[in-house]
Queue: 2 jobs
Job 1
Amino acid sequence: MKTQMTERDKKLLVGMFIFVIIVAIGYWGIIPQIKAYNKLGTKIDKEEVTKSVNEQKVSNLIFVESMCEEYEETMAENKAKFYDMMSEAEIDFLLTTRAVQHDLEAYSLSIDIPSSPSDRNAYIYSELYKQQLEWESQRELLYMDVDEDEDDLLGTGDDKDDDKKETTEDETVDIWGNTDMVGENTDIYVAKVTISLGGDEAQLKAFLDEIMASEKKILITSFSWGEYRTQQAIEVPVEEIIQAEEKAEAEGDTTTTTTTKKTETKYELVTVKSLTITMEIYMCDKVE
């Protein structure tokens, strides 16, 4: 039995063949080119952003350099007001040396050096404290905006706007640096020290005044007076009779003697004034 193709069947076959060819050309030829074009467009956009950032950097170079010089000078002046980073032994030597200079005895010393910078804010009535509060509120608003974006479960946000916002923020960071870190301390370490001294009351007061008048940053958080029992050296006079035979023989008097006065050091337990000081020594990591 023979089957013959009609004209209509032939036309259908030719149409299907042409359709398959068109689909194949579109899938393996046109679509890859469209994807490559889109990638190239994205790359061009990124390069345009990079070009814009570099142009702004060049235009702001002189201004940024002057800002950096002023910043480094200011930082050097401020860091000079703090102690260099010290170990417990160095702090011990610093305080005990001052105590010895005032003829005082340090009978108790506690030192706590943190491993991370201090998060203490500035003095509550200073202008810097107001700025720190403002910076902190700005950071909190920024974090709140990020949380709201994360909580958008319906996904109704405009991704293009978000990408544009991130790109703008990246440009700002590239040109001016990360301003989110402004006002945060990364260099100042606070060593908490408690020292107990014993000795003359006038010398104890002089030691306290010297600490309070220190050019370097030391904050006395508390101090208290008390008494301290210690051994004290006392010079006791002792008479020693020495026979001056040669002098007596020369004068013809064998009974003549001379008396020489000497002293002997003895130790006795006495009660003296004591002063306990709790302070914070501010140290700066000056290593660049």
Job 2
Amino acid sequence: MKAQKNKIAPVSVLYLLYISRIVVTLTYIQSVTTNLMNPDIMISMVIAMGLTIVFALPVIYCSKKHKNPVDVVWLGPFYSLYLIFAAALSISRFSYFASTTLNPDSQALLFVLVIGICALYAALLGIEGIARFSSFCFLMLVIAIATVFLCNIKNYNEINLYPLITNKTDRIFYNSLTLASNSMEIVLFLPLSKRVNGYAVRPLIRAVTLSYLTIIVLLLFVFGVMGDSAGIHSFPLYALFQLAKVRSFEKIDALHISFWIFGIFLKSAILFYCASICIKPFRQKNKCIACAAAAVIAALLLNEKNGLNTMTAPVQISLFILFAVVIPVLTLIFKKRNRGDELIEKF
């Protein structure tokens, strides 16, 4: 297909959504869950993958039937606010990691501002520039994951995985729902689907499946290498990268940090961009600036609250169900198809 302005290839959608999901786990899977990390988190991940695919069905049908909730003038701003909240949460999580682990002498405010400004610049460049950078991030992620596997294979011991199940069934399912609600791929697909130069549903399913499988394998190595000690680390995947060594070169964790920085930058940029296009009037540049400013302010407010992750977990689940499932289902039932979409489909 010929290239079109403000359109991206389906494979770019795969990269963007895959990285968006991976960044959540790199940020802190420990605090996303409601208890210390245990090997049964892998079971929660498998269930969360199934839940995410099921939750994505209304959005997929919205795309096929040309009944996108984002096209509804009064619904668009609410989706914009939700994406801004997601961007603020992602930025605040990384700034917490950076200010407590990478450089304890620095303040979270600095990292929030730097990420906000850089992501805003990328959002102003448009979807095509963001998509091109996503291919670089995807390649870097593949290299980082392959390196940590190869460097830790000698330290892997399957006995460290036992006992496999330590939580109660209800806790495992609650963790699954919490992990699924931390996924922004479904909601991001709504504004992105109209910017794809081709079939966008298949990249969504592949991104969800591949991202969860990658996370499960990473967790398998986390527990296979660290065992029970994985539960005492605030950032277990970062600890796994720290344990990886290649002869005299012992800074493999730099790969983790590098991708994390690029990943959070990319995710914030795509969230700013999608939040801006959910609002119909006004200039695109002004909308991007307003969305980025709101996300930075929200991230600073989130950083001021103690127990950020547990406080926002119920809120995240409720908002996710509302914007990813309830509103798309109601849109399918009540929204009329745009006459322009019908003519394009017939053509």
